[in-house]
């Protein structure tokens, strides 16, 4: 069978969590509908995090409940703890994602706890998810660099990967939060993670601050990864990672795989029109 790739759309969460001007809930719902129309089958829809920490995601319940669900599409939610998981599942999330980091300083700044405490917070999340029969992805932030600690050792990423797998996560998203990574350092990090997890359980989540995200995707692909995250229009960044620019644009990711002759199942023209549309909505909100 020909090689194929799964692209996870994180724009409605990772992209819009950083939109200070605020995007209307109706626009978020329209965006999610358009992404499904374009053929995205996994859409990280919102984040059930504290609205005091991330006000842009305060409408999480309205978004998750309001989504016009399409068959074959999984609508997931990012959650930091049991409270978020309960609310996300009650609102109809079909998958959850927890997030920790390979850097203590970033974990503390992002979630107000240590890495070990974050893992403890996830135990009740896993129990709720298991009862509901939904899968849980685990993000490892700062897999290459941390805004506070600098370069991160591949072994630190591998250790957190192993802990998330032991918890019961079905997929680990190795995340270059700052987008400063190089293909060489990406390969070293992925190789370390592969000592603890099969390639089928790893995904690549690359921000594109330095314009090397596609090269980093290619390095991870060579090592067997087949799941990559994109954010339509390159929206995004992390509010607790100063200097992190947008995520890798989903349409660029699709173009990259199309050029290699690898099936994505995504209609690039439709996606590009969506990118243009949401960029226009941002401009309307800002000004
Ligand atoms: P805390 O202040 O230590 O928590 O925050 P707390 O338990 O003391 O609660 C404080 C208040 O938050 C309470 O409300 C709780 O009820 C409420 P109050 O009684 O004061 O009114 N609260 C919640 N509200 C809604 N939903 C919840 C929730 N939990 C508590 N789930 C906490 C700890 C984790 C909650 C906070 O730090 C937080 O929400 N952090 C989220 C930060 C965030 O969303 N960052 C961006 C996403 S991560 C990312 O972008 C990286 C990623 O893309 C990968 C990569 O690129 O690296 C995934
Ligand atoms: Mg991110």
From TrEMBL:
One of its GO terms (molecular function) is hydroxymethylglutaryl-CoA lyase activity. CDD domains: DRE_TIM_HMGL (cd07938). Pfam families: HMGL-like. GO terms for biological process: ketone body biosynthetic process; L-leucine catabolic process. Residues 5-272 form the Pyruvate carboxyltransferase domain. Transmembrane segments: none annotated. Keywords: Lyase, Metal-binding. It comes from the Bacteria. Belongs to the HMG-CoA lyase family. NCBIfam families: PRK05692.1. This is Hydroxymethylglutaryl-CoA lyase. It comes from Bosea lupini.
């Amino acid at each position: 069978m020909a090689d194929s790739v799964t692209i996870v759309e994180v724009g409605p969460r990772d992209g819009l969590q950083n939109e200070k001007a605020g995007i209307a809930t109706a626009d978020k719902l329209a965006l999610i509908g358009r992404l499904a129309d374009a053929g995205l089958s996994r859409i990280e829809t919102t984040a059930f995090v504290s609205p005091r920490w991330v006000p842009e995601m305060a409408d999480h319940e309205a978004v998750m409940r309001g989504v016009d669900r399409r068959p074959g599409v999984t609508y997931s939610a990012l959650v930091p703890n049991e409270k978020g998981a309960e609310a996300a599942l009650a609102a109809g999330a079909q998958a959850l994602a927890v997030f920790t980091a390979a850097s203590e300083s970033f974990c503390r700044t992002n979630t107000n706890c240590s890495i070990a405490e974050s893992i403890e917070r996830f135990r009740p999340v896993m129990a709720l998810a298991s009862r509901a029969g939904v899968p849980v992805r685990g993000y490892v932030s700062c897999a290459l660099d941390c805004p506070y600690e600098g370069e991160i050792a591949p072994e630190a990423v591998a250790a957190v990967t192993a802990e998330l797998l032991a918890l019961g996560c079905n997929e680990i998203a190795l995340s270059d939060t700052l987008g400063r990574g190089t293909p060489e350092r990406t390969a070293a990090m992925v190789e370390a993670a592969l000592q603890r997890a099969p390639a089928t359980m790893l995904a690549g989540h690359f921000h594109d601050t330095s314009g090397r995200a596609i090269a980093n995707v290619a390095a991870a692909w060579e090592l067997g990864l087949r799941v990559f995250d994109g954010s339509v229009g390159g929206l995004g960044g992390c509010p607790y990672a100063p200097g992190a620019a947008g995520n890798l644009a989903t349409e660029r990711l699709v173009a990259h795989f199309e050029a290699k002759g690898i099936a994505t199942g995504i209609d690039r023209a439709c996606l590009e029109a969506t990118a243009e549309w949401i960029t226009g909505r941002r401009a309307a909100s800002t000004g």
